[in-house]
Amino acid sequence: MVTQLLFGDVFEILEIHPKWIRIKDAYDGYESWIDHKQWLEISIETFEELKKTHAKQVVSDLAAVVRINEKEVQSILIGSSLPGLNNQHIVSVESQNFAFDGSFFNLNSTPQKNKLVENSFMYLNAPYLWGGKTPFGIDCSGFTQMVYKLNGFALPRDAYQQAEIGETLSFVEEAEPGDLAFFDDDEGNIIHVGMVLEQGTIIHASGKVRIDALDHQGIYNKELKNYSHKLRLIKKIID
Question: 24 and 94 in contact (C-beta within 8 Å)?
């Protein structure tokens, strides 16, 4: 697994096989394969419209539900998009209606940096899962992407891609809560990302979403009594 789709995500079909479909996620451009279950075909016109608006309202509960009818209920998770949500909490996508039962964020056009830390704690202790993007399993770049999504800012999917945007800071002491720190391997490849907190700490997905010490060398794990990740650079994404 390289990534996950959440409820309300839209994608373009690139290639069709008997059991698998190759797709391109409209949110971050990520390409991957899915099977034929749990997706709804929409028109090109609806696709183009949802590309612009599908992440304007997102689920804020760790888990919520949508009702397809009186008997069919589907669980959806934090960060899921709610395209076409109206005042009656109905999500409408062409001829299909889903009754939403839960809480959601109305995302502003201007991302709110002060909310990043608060929302990151909603994933605290989530187990690590390569390609994951939910509280039931998440990887390092999926974690930072989802926290930023909950605040109205679209990050790329992978850590090395996220490291290519934003303003580079010269010293770790310049970092503010919400800035991203990137870490490399012995070959200089970006392999890890986390979000800076206050007072020399960082929240990141490593084994689980956890809080560790951060300094100019990298992430210090007090349990291991050693540095687990070597600091490469720090980026300010949102002012």
Answer: no
CATH class of 113-236: alpha beta
- Residue 40 pLDDT: 87
Q: Which are the catalytic amino acids?
A: 140, 192, 204
Beta bridge mates, 63: 77
pTM for this model (two decimals): 0.94
pLDDT tens for each residue of 112-164: 788 999 999 999 999 999 999 999 999 999 999 999 999 989 999 999 999 99
Residue 55 near residue 47 (C-beta atoms within 8 A): no
Distances (CA, A) of 82 to 9, 66, 153, 198, 204: 9, 10, 16, 32, 27
Residues 194, 180 contacting (CB under 8 angstroms) = yes
d(CA 105, CA 128): 25
Dihedral sign, Cα of residue 140, residue 142, residue 146, residue 148: positive
Residue span(s) of the chain under CATH 3.90.1720.10 come to 113-236
